[in-house]
Amino acid sequence: MDVRVFPDYAALSQQAAHHIAHLIRQKPNAVLCLASGDTPIGTFQQLNAMAQAGELDLNHCLFVGLDEWVGFGPADVGSCAYYLYKDLFTPARIRPEQIAYFDAKADDLQAECHRIDRIIADAGGLDFLLVGIGVNGHIALNEPGTSFTLRCHVSQLAESTISVGQKYFTQATPLTQGITLGLRHLTDAREVMLMASGPRKATIMQAALHGPVTEQVPASIIQTHPNARVWLDEAAAKPAA
Ligand code: PGA
């Protein structure tokens, strides 16, 4: 595992963006799955700047959505897709045909899961998966107790995910289920990066990195990946006092 601790969020974001840019330059048609959420925003800003300056060509990449709240779509403020469009797809001018995202408003969510599984398989698998971590150890919407063997599935959200998730919405919003890539997608991805920033993530990062590999801490699966990066800022890397 490539574990790196950067002095602050800005340095973490800059290095992550450089790493992703390098990967895309090596493989311009890379299949990427990049998490939404607060953690990658700085990385996306750097990537957008590179794309806008003509230093990075994102035109041949395929972007697969990581997860979504069931019942929410890209037009809904607070949805995962809403932020990914706002923070990356729109400023980086990613074309619709380059994006494969769950329709979490679909009547048949199982069919949506199969559709995204199929897209990933047909594209030859994920070249790169960027994930954050929830304070309960979740990866995407794979909550504690989720089997490591699942691909796309519908999940029951944990209480902490429902309460922490309110930060993405402008008003109190009932959340119950998610539709998400599974941890099998993480194991199968050619490269994985877990990013964490800030003191709120310090305790769970210790468990994910140094505790047992267990489905009770979904992020601990990263210890088993042969090509994994865990990049943190100092605040997230500090063991709790
Ligand atoms: P955050 O979300 O980047 O907004 O902290 C991480 C997560 O819950 O996976």
Protein model, in words:
- With 241 residues, this protein is α/β, with parallel strands linked by helices.
- It has a single domain (2-234), classed as Rossmann fold.
- It has eight helices and ten strands.
- It has helices spanning 9-26, 41-52, 80-89, 109-122, 159-164, 183-188, 202-210, 234-237; strands at 2-6, 31-34, 62-64, 67-69, 99-100, 128-131, 153-156, 177-180, 192-196, 228-233.
- A seven-stranded parallel beta sheet has the order 1-10-9-6-2-3-5.
- Strand 9, helix 7 (202-210) and strand 10 form a beta-alpha-beta unit.
- Helix 1 crosses helix 2 (41-52).
- It is globular.
- 2-phosphoglycolic acid binds at residues 37-39, 132-134.
Characteristic terms for this protein:
10 strands, Rossmann fold, 8 helices, globular, alpha/beta, 17% strand, three-stranded antiparallel beta sheet, binds 2-phosphoglycolic acid, 33% helix, seven-stranded parallel beta sheet, 241 residues
- CATH fold-level assignment: Rossmann fold
Annotated CATH architecture: 3-Layer(aba) Sandwich
Count of DSSP-assigned helices? 8
Largest sheet: 7 strands, parallel
Net shape = globular
